Amino acid sequence: MTRLQRRRFSQPAEVRVIPRGRIDVVELDDWVVGRFVFEPGWRWSRDVGPIAGTATCQYHHLGAVLSGTLLVEMDDGTELRLEPGDVFEIPPGHDSEVTSDEPWVALDFASSRTFAQAAELRDERTLASILFTDIVDSTRHAERLGDHAWADLLAQHNAIATRELDRFRGRTIKSTGDGVLALFDGAERAVRCAAAVCLASQSIGLAIRAGIHTGEVELGGGDVRGVAVHHAARIMSLAGPSEVYVSSTTHDLLAGSELAFADAGLHELKGLTGKRQVFRLAAARSS
Q1: DSSP alpha helices (H): ranges in the chain?
Q2: Reported pTM
């Protein structure tokens, strides 16, 4: 339940010190906000990369710049300068460098829970509802539209997915190219988010399918691992256009909710033993 509250960066819950910088973290129940302070010359690949253990930053950032200038370089070569007054979003797969003579200071609302945290602290097992989404017939769309038009449409889809994940408090783990992998601390929010992404994507001519399973996962290095992740991916592969499928585990957790499901039968899921019961979202009776 939300409540009226405040926290101060002068009294952070955690101060994460890194080479040439620090992150001050405050917590508002489920919400985590970070104040990034990176000194002139700070560069992700040199100062955070060895901590993360990845070639480029795999976190999704969403925030606002207070001072300084940061040059962001995406894996595809795209560059963007972030300066005071800018509100920004940075997808996973990037490097960045402070190019100003003053520190780059920004507030980040998406990645501060574990960004630049040491691996032994970042790696953890937790119970989560795992959401996979996928664009149906993405290859056919790409061939029909051509590279440039398809890239534009994919960007619109990504914006829709990001908006709904933020709205339902999902934790984006990574983009799968034509879909997303995200975690939720509540099964109902995961299902409602999936339904919202499917519905909103229809407005741009795309059909999305989604699969959800609830189980223990291992978080670390900006990624998520475990049998439960494969379980969710296999369930998604069963869904048709604009359909949301859930595992029996997730279905049982939603007893008493205002979500209605139809029995989608027993299925053998690749890599998992035995047949598994699967359910299809039939209706969401409350927004």
Answers
A1: 44-47, 49-52, 119-122, 138-145, 147-167, 187-202, 227-238, 248-253
A2: 0.61
The structure tokens 């302070």 sit at 37
Q: Which two tokens stand for residue 271?
A: 């890599």
Q: Which of 30, 207, 69, 83 is nearest to 133 (CA)?
A: 207
Tokens of 283: 């209706």
The half-sphere exposure of 32 on its side-chain side, counting CA atoms within 13 A, is 16
Q: Domains of the chain by range and CATH?
A: 14-120 (2.60.120.10), 123-284 (3.30.70.1230)
Supply the pLDDT for residue 171: 87
The answer to whether the Cα torsion of 17, 23, 24, 28 is positive or negative is negative
pLDDT for res 113: 84
pLDDT in tens, 166-219: 899 898 888 888 899 999 999 999 999 999 999 999 999 999 999 999 999 987
Given a cut of 70, is residue 20 above it in pLDDT?
A: yes
Contact 58, 48 (CB under 8 A): no
